[in-house]
Amino acid sequence: MTTPANPTALHAPPFVALRPPPKFQSPRPVACAMRAAMRDGSSNRRQLHRGRHLSIEAIQAVQALKRADGRGCRLSLERELDSKFRRLLKLDMIAVLRELLRQNECALVLKVFEDIRKEEWYKPHVSLYADAIEVFASNGLLEQVVQKLVYFVHVYVA
């Protein structure tokens, strides 16, 4: 009988010698935060920031306006403006307008912008006009922009 070169190899099972030693793995962090929720769902409303963060109501208004505009019925669009858009907060109205500008919805932008102009809190913002002009010009509607600007200048400056 021959003796092996390593005397401990006789007593150790063969799979232990082939397996590398286990490495220490740190446990994954678990988020355990409790949050009080109100029953009416008002805690779900996110604060509106500059950028592309929209409230739930603003998202629903954009979707409803686009759906009503796709039908081609003017009454349907007016109904959606009354039920969804005109009841929004000031910041949500501006967010809806900016989102429609981002999506190149020129016809809806005009409707929404006319409604916003009628609000008592509205004051002209140069950045909003610049964004609207850029979108209309990129869609080949520069003549409409010039007509609207001439109208705004005559009505509000004079």
Walk me through this protein's architecture.
- The structure is a single chain.
- By secondary structure, the protein is an all-alpha fold.
- It has a domain at 53-158: Serine Threonine Protein Phosphatase 5, Tetratricopeptide repeat.
- The chain has helices spanning 14-18, 56-71, 74-85, 90-102, 106-118, 126-138, 142-156.
- The radius of gyration is 31 Å and the shape is elongated.
- The N and C termini lie far apart (115 Å).
- The mean pLDDT is 75.
- One of its GO terms (biological process) is Group II intron splicing.
Q: Which SSEs are present, and which pair or pack?
A:
Elements: H1 14-18, H2 56-71, H3 74-85, H4 90-102, H5 106-118, H6 126-138, H7 142-156
Helix pairs in contact: 2-3, 2-4, 4-5
Compact overview of the structure:
By secondary structure, this protein is mainly α. 55% of the residues lie in helices and 0% in strands. The chain has a domain at 53-158: Serine Threonine Protein Phosphatase 5, Tetratricopeptide repeat (Alpha Horseshoe), CATH 1.25.40.10.
